[in-house]
Amino acid sequence: MLVRIAVLVSGGGTNLQALIDAQKSGALKSGKLALVVSNNPGAYALTRAKEDGIPAEIIEGADFESKLLEILRGNGIDIIVLAGFMRILSTEFTAKYPRRILNVHPSLIPSFCGRGFYGLRVHRAALEYGVKLTGATVHFVNEIPDGGEIIMQKAVEVIDGDTPETLQRRVMEEAEWAILPAAAERICAEMVKNQVQKGMSN
Ligand code: GAR
After folding, report:
1. pTM of the complete model
2. Which atom of ligand 1 is nearest to the CA of 85?
3. 199 CA distance to ligand 1 centroid (A)?
4. Which of 4, 42, 77, 83 gives a 20 to 30 Å CA spacing to 160?
């Protein structure tokens, strides 16, 4: 059994690419990238999905979550990975997938996270504060923005003269692209193991 993964994206999709590369290399082996969903028709992540032959859907506007639910169910999705997805999911939605939604956030939670902290804003805030270490976090998504249980974190050094852009790039290269696929594999492997055990006890 392979866990069926949907990846939700909004932009460039370098984290989606890291998942695709991990699937190709065999580092992600307990799950299959089965679907990509974007809330932005112009997201380059959609091109990455297409190039890899992963089915992709665009959902815009009102009824976003009800359309999303329908598509997830229609595709037999087991877990959802938010990879640069710039929309906060409602409590009603997250309650339907307890410990089944993962998010990558570009800071060491609980620093620089929550409502209003996304993309370059996170790195701008870290530089303004003057922290010497930042990093990335993969966590489960619950009703609190960036507040779910932490799965993996990796620290990254801030270097004198960093701009939000240079820091963002280093955090992606040294942390996000490594821990997102690793966390996805860990959770998928646990799900497979639980499924096997359940099957044996039946
Ligand atoms: C990544 O740095 C991701 O951690 C961040 O947006 C960027 C998306 O890049 N996500 C958030 O800030 C969510 N709160 P990508 O589209 O190239 O993966």
Report:
1. 0.97
2. 13
3. 37
4. 83
